[in-house]
Amino acid sequence: MDKGKAVMGAGRRWAVDFSDQSTVPSSRDILDPPGFSRASPEQDDSATSRQKKDAEANWKLQKAWEVAQSPFKNLMMMGFMMWMAGNTVHLFSIGITFSALWQPLSALQSVGKIFEPFKDNKVELLMPKLVFLALNLGGLALGIWKLNTLGLLPTHASDWVSSLPPPQEVEHSGGGFAFH
What we know:
This protein has helices at about 5-10, 40-85, 90-110, 110-115, 125-150. It is mostly helical and about 180 residues long.
């Protein structure tokens, strides 16, 4: 037996005629209920996709603001750790101080990479980036202040004595006896 001949046979045995030849009013003659719209599915899909894109843009903006404000938590933690380290120069306080300087510097270098997942033409990232930069600059200022309180910044004239020329002698004082 050949494949397909048993199914098709000589002709179709079952056939349904879907053409409407009745005198009963069709569904086209009945009015739509109030609030119903015969919008095409493409329009409905475009509205749904627009809503999804708007929701995604709002989510991206919210997450961008969370990332922008995250250095504040780090700032508070680092300030507490520097307070606990004290104002004396020892290994622990120097390590915390340089960590307080390194973290903001590395964050400032990678601002573009940090906000890359949130890039979208519907999401404005300027303000979150500026807040992120400002908070990291605040962290950098906190680290520099700690360096100053530890006395590790050259802010006094005595820190630069080795580079100053020796003062010229203004007076001479001499004794009364000459030894030959």
